[in-house]
Specification:
By secondary structure, the protein is an alpha/beta fold. It has one domain: Decaprenyl diphosphate synthase-like (Undecaprenyl pyrophosphate synthetase, 3-Layer(aba) Sandwich), CATH 3.40.1180.10. The protein is built from eight helices and six strands, in the order βααβαβαβααββαα. A six-stranded parallel beta sheet has the order 3-4-2-1-5-6, with helices on both faces. Strand 3, helix 4 and strand 4 form a beta-alpha-beta unit. Helix 3 packs parallel to helix 4 and helix 5 crosses helix 6. The longest helix has 24 residues.
């Protein structure tokens, strides 16, 4: 069986995973490619924007459930650098929706100890969106329960290339390069390696998302379209993660013994 894809969607009650902590005890870094909004809407006879609006509601539910799953850092892929190639009307709607999300979620983030960071380029997003980003980041900077990172106008390859150009003629360690990568992505501190990457919507690819950070990430692909992805599904993905043996290039524990 391919462990990268669940054989079927779990039925019934999914056990809570209070033990969901990484080996360092710092909590998990989970990254999610939120795929399937448009298909979800079309399958219901609605327009694609309706799917994106529902997808934003799902993002709220997943953010609220994340700490209960032992997640300390949650990175959501909201808008890739290649998404600028979508119809102009859809892109404009996505930017308006993103700005509205930022404005509406700040108080909720503060109340729940969520620190919000937007990673990716900022020079191509509308000015009112940049202002909303800066305001939301400043207002939530004291959050300690969850680091919520939203990738907007993001390309992992472009980020790595920009960092590599800055690192030219310098012999940097992996840790130093990670810090440099965090700087070009407007991250707060060095980029932390991803423990678990989830992609909804049935596709099985990374789509230029966190390529450096996902070097040893466990991959979990779900057929569930993003608007239907629930807290129960997040728990199931984390439980699957803890059922796997992470070897980081080594041999299984039984073989090593």
């Amino acid at each position: 069986m391919d462990l990268a894809r669940p054989a079927h969607r779990p039925k019934g009650k999914v056990p809570h995973a209070p033990e969901a902590r990484d080996e360092s005890g710092a909590g998990l870094h989970v990254a999610i490619i939120m795929d399937g909004n448009g298909r979800w809407a079309v399958s219901r006879g609605s327009s694609r924007p309706a799917g994106h609006i529902e997808g934003a509601r799902t993002a709220r539910r997943i953010v609220e459930a994340a700490p209960q799953c032992g997640i300390r850092v949650l990175t959501l892929y909201a808008f890739s650098a290649d998404n600028w190639n979508r119809p102009q009307r859809e892109v404009a709607m996505l930017m308006r929706l993103f700005r509205r999300y930022l404005l509406s979620e700040v108080d909720r983030c503060i109340a729940n100890g969520v620190r919000l960071t937007i990673i990716g380029r900022r020079d191509r997003v509308p000015g009112e969106v940049r202002k909303a980003i800066e305001s939301a980041e400043a207002a939530t900077s004291e959050g300690r329960t969850l680091d919520l990172r939203i990738a907007v106008d993001y390309s992992a390859r472009d980020s790595i290339l920009r960092a590599a150009r800055r690192a030219a003629d310098h012999h940097l360690s992996r840790e130093q390069f990670s810090r440099l990568l965090g700087e070009v992505e407007h991250d707060r501190g060095p980029s932390r390696e991803v423990d678990l990457l989830i992609r909804t919507g049935g596709e099985q690819r990374l789509s230029d998302f966190l390529l450096w950070e996902c070097a040893y990430a466990e991959l979990y692909f779900s057929d569930i379209l993003w608007p239907d992805f629930s807290a129960k599904d997040l728990h199931a993905a984390v439980a699957e993660f803890h059922a796997r043996e992470r070897r980081f290039g080594g041999v299984p524990a039984a073989a090593a013994g």
